[in-house]
Amino acid sequence: MSSAAVRIVAASEHDVPIILEMIRALADYEKLAHEVEASEERLRATLFGKQPAAEVSLAYVGDVCAGFAVYFPTYSTFLARPGMYLEDLYVKPEHRGHGIGFALLRHLAGLCRERGYGRLEWSVLNWNEPSIQFYKRLGAVPLDEWTRYRLAGDSLRALGEEMG
Questions:
Q1: Can 75 be counted among the known catalytic residues?
Q2: Candidate list 75, 85, 135, 149, residue with the active-site label
Q3: For position 102, what pLDDT does the model report?
Q4: Contact 24, 40 (CB under 8 A)
């Protein structure tokens, strides 16, 4: 199958169960299932509520959802232009190697072009060599000079209390 057989659609609220299924499958693949707190209710509120925090595109092969991408806008002060951060890209194992990941990234690159975005960025786990090689074949480059930091859970709450 070529990527031409893949149909990419914007997710809607009725797709929430599929989105949650894909999130759980991704978490299993990344050995992070213990970190999933997402629920259908929370996804409905944060993706399709009054102020959506992200967008989701679903990749279909026939009637089967084979993959998804979750992304949201960013901003580059140096470019003085918005960009896109790809939070999650996942293709079900039985559909890998058939152009679905490529089709999703091509779709996102097209959205970036249409919206006037200056960059598309994402993170990949260091052990995920198949994905790293895939991204390099597309021309993506690792930003080795940057280290990503995260505040979450108790640390985030504590800092917010101190500031608040």
A1: no
A2: 135
A3: 95
A4: no
Element (H, E) at 64: strand 64-76
Residues 6+ apart with CB under 8 A from 74: 82, 83, 84, 85, 119, 121
Asked if residues 70 and 123 have their Cβ atoms less than 8 Å apart, the reply is no
The letter for the amino acid at 71 is Y
CA angle, 46 as apex, 123 and 65 as ends, to 5°?
Answer: 65
Domain boundaries, the chain: 3-163
Total residue length of the chain? 164
Query: Per-residue pLDDT tens for 30-49?
Result: 999 999 999 999 999 999 99
**CATH fold of the domain at 3-163:** Aminopeptidase (3.40.630)
**Residue 97, both tokens:** 């190697």
Instruction: Label residue 128 left, alpha or beta by phi (over 0 means left) and psi (-120 to 50 means alpha).
Output: beta
